[in-house]
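Q: A reviewer asked whether we had any structural model of the full assembly, not just the individual parts. We don't, so I'm hoping you can provide one. Inputs are below.
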Amino acid sequence: MSLLAYAWILPVLPLLAFALVISTGRKLPRMVAPAAGITTMSLVCLASLAMLWATIHGARFTHDVSWIHAFGVNVEVGILVDPLSSLMLVIVSLVSMLVQVYSIGYMADEERFRWYFGAISLFTAAMIGVVLSDGWLLMYMCWEVMGLASFLLIGFWYETPTASAASMKAFMVTRLGDVGFGLGLAVMWLSVGSFTFETVFRRVETGAWAGPTLIAAALLLFMGAMGKSAQFPLHVWLPDAMAGPTPGSALIHAATMVAAGVYLVARSYPLFEANPVTLQVVAIIGAITAVMAALIACAMDDIKKVLAYSTISQLGYMMIALGVGSWGAAIFHLMTHAFFKSLLFLAAGSVIHGTHTQDAREMGGLWRKMPWTTAVWVIGALSLAGIPPLAGFWSKDEILLTAFNGGHTVLLVAGLVVAFLTAFYMGRITFIAFFAKPGLTSKSPHAHESSAVMIVPLVILATLAAFVGLVGAPPFNAFAAFLGEHADPFNIFLALVAVAAAVGGLTYAWVMYERGWAFPDWYLRNRRIAPVLIHQFWIDDAYQRVIVAPAMALADLLRKADVAVVDGIVRGFGHLGMALSGFLAVFDRSVVDGAVDGLGSGVVGGGGQVRRIQTGNVQTYLLLLVASIVVLVLVFAR
Amino acid sequence: MIGLNHYLLLGAALFAIGIFGALTSKSALRVVICVELILNAVNLNLAAFSAYVAPKQAVGMNFVIFLMVVAAAEVGLALAIIISLNRTSDVGAIGSIRRLRG
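A: Here is a predicted structure for the entire assembly that you could use as a starting point for your response.
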């Protein structure tokens, strides 16, 4: 109990690391930035493990403080430590720590080395804040900070136009979802008058809050989750987000932040459970996302893009789990996914580091050059594909099992199709990049294995990706019990179907890319299928036409109006002033200056003329004297 | 019969000769002599007016005495300057003395 009461320190530690990096800048010795990040994250990780241990043994902690207390309004914020949050803490801190260790090697040559670690620390602090908060308000605030950190890391190489555009796109698209989140909070406040989970859930359980406002609030919250977790149709930012550094992508855009949407729905589950329609929406969106992203992943040659679409697809999988009524399965898959997807991303980073290309067609035969990377990649890929006994199998099986037992046939079929596609595209990219004979443009001959600082985190993650699924494996189902969820009994028939789908996908990829018995990428030469996949279902184009182009046109119109009217008036005044001042300038120059200059030059010229009389010759003076007298006499002596 | 006008004419002639000489002479000594001529022309006029216009007061006569004294002093001074100039710069021609030029 006493340990959990100090949970508020956890987000503060990485925040201090961030503050250190951002306040010292270049004065900080180079290696202090990762040292600060990794030290704080190790402490957080150890504390999280201790807290997980405590929660396994039944400890719970929640504490609220009054934040705004005025005008009859009382807004409370606080922290909550329960199985879900302590589990998320372990996932976040563990992956963040391993990613930071890996980044020491991956980012070694970067100019903004320190800043990178600062941003990672900021992100981790925000993510810890999200999972620790005991109400939606604090969660929303940390959620936004997380969005900022994501923006900063996507735009890490902001000199490249694609990276800066991608960061902007990610920020805008997720903001669209967050507007929904914010509106959901407003609905909640108006209906319940509180943001804390406990209060709101009690109102929902007793039926005091029900009806359209509850549905609206739940769907609006889900909109926030759709933005953050890249669900259709707000998924467009995630593939572009791959412009950021690969370890950052591994942490934020694969393992943790994008899973925050799933966490949000799981955390708010009573709100969704109250109305089946909201769960259906979640499941349908999840299914569309999972199938669509898996299809697109089959057409990608960029190794990071494949993983990005795979992430979207797997997040859709988690949404299916939430939609069919098992948030425990969703969180289980979230955990296994966090480990094997961050593993895959870091392994991809190792490949990119070794070959200096992201295009799988420019690789091939990497297993000879990079044995460690290949080994961990294969473990990650098999885990993602759902081959037993690796982690991905258990979590995926649990989702399919829930769908099957709930009688959601369409969702079950969608899940199996995605399982097949997942195995296929992972097999495809694995065979092309690691096992196929290197082509003429291949950069594999010059590839080199990465250093130990990158390999060690990979091996740790590979171990986790291989074995972490066992905590949820039957017959004990320890994981679901820990979260307080019931788990359906293991169904050997369904498990066999799922494994068949995965093996089928891998075999088909093997047949196509390794044996050459089927024409490789035949679907990319099919005139009907290829455009759909290559244009990614035209969703970006649709955004371009429906939102971006009209917005640009409106902006252009407003700009023209601005130029014509506002600028016209301003310019008119300007021209008037110019004309007036031009006239005044001429007047000034000719008359005022003329008078002054004229006087001056007159004096100078006259002086010059008079000067000549002053010859110094006495006789001349005398002559002038006489002449003057003669003149005077002639004038006056009449 | 010699009247005032004859004296005045003589004075005017002397004055004119003096002016002419002072303006045209190159020698500094001659300029001084010519200046003496001018002074004496004035003296002649003063004496003539004194004698013909107001003989009793003899104011003009007094002026003449004064002027003669002044002229004597002036000649002394002028000769001293000329000698000094001759000694220092070995010039006799007054035209070459331009030190008065401002």
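A: Points you may want to mention in the reply: Chain B touches chain A at residues 19, 22-23, 31, 94-95, 97-102 (CB under 8 Å). Chain B has a mean pLDDT of 83.
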